[in-house]
Amino acid sequence: MVGQSIIRILFGLLLTAQASAFDEGFDYTRLPQARPTQTGDKVEVLEVFMYGCPHCRNFEPALTEWLKTLPEGAEFRRVPATGGRWTAQARAHYAARSMGKLDVFHPALFDAIHAHKRLIQTEDELVAFAAELGMDANEFRAAYNAPEVQNQVSQDEAMVKNDGVDNVPTLIVNGKYRVSLTQAGGHARLFEVLDALLARELGAGS
User: Fold this and answer.
1) Is 4 exposed, middle or buried (0-12, 13-18, 19+ CB in 10 A)?
2) What is the CATH number of the domain that holds 122?
3) Residue 16 has pLDDT above 70, yes or no
4) Alpha-carbon torsion 35, 39, 45, 46, what sign?
5) With bands split at pLDDT 50, 70 and 90, how would you rate the model's confidence at 7?
6) Which residues on neighbouring strands pair with residue 29, listed in sequence order?
7) CB–CB of 195/183 below 8 Å?
8) Fewer Cβ atoms within 10 Å of its own Cβ: the N or the C terminal residue of the chain?
9) In this structure, are 145 and 87 located in the same domain?
């Protein structure tokens, strides 16, 4: 029991040291008001991205590798940014997720847009693209137009606005802290900040 107490104390000191290595307002931004997360008792790491954003696409390989190190007690989720022609892609994202096909659809749409320079922006274009990937076109269209998908996109739009996200990719830790690739100044620095914020939140819940 004494040994466990010492470990907790040392862990707390480590968290303090990690957090103090980064400056609030410079390396990351604290949201004016913490908001509820959607990951239950797990610490939420949320990425706001856009399929048409080349920086988001270039960020994907590094993010995929970092996610392999995501500690127990944390959970990752994506939120596609909306607005204008990007709203259709956001709805398609959730349609694919509802069909259990997001792991196929997500990287394929990034590659189609950026590697193959394809314009896939309208409902019909997205339905046809889903069919190319082996998904049932009618089922995809129904999911795309489902009320729950439209509601999710509307909720995301309000959340992104309230969280002050003004560029992508941006990551939000536990509904409290916001850090963008632009703010961090590069992939490596961004993940260092994320690791420190994650450690802080995981330690707070221990």
Assistant:
1) exposed
2) 3.40.30.10
3) no
4) negative
5) very low
6) 178
7) no
8) N
9) yes
**Higher per-residue confidence, 206 vs 56:** 56
Facing residues of 88 across strands? none
Q: How far apart are the first and last CA of the chain?
A: 16
The Cα 139–Cα 105 span in angstroms is: 14
Do 174 and 130 share a structural domain? no
Are 77 and 176 found together in one domain? yes
- The range of the structural domain enclosing residue 45 comes to 12-81+165-206
Q: What percentage of residues in the chain have a pLDDT greater than 90? A: 80
> What tokens does 118 get?
């394809």
Q: Looking at the structure, do residues 69 and 171 belong to the same domain, yes or no?
A: yes
**180 and 154 in one domain?**
no
- Shared-domain flag, residues 154 and 118: yes
Total domains, the chain? 2
Q: Let me know whether 72 and 171 are in one domain.
A: yes
Parallel, antiparallel, or unpaired for β 177-180 and 29-30? Answer: antiparallel
SS3 36: coil
CB 40 within 8 A of CB 9: no
Is pLDDT at 12 greater than 50 in this prediction? no
Q: What is the mean pLDDT of the chain?
A: 90
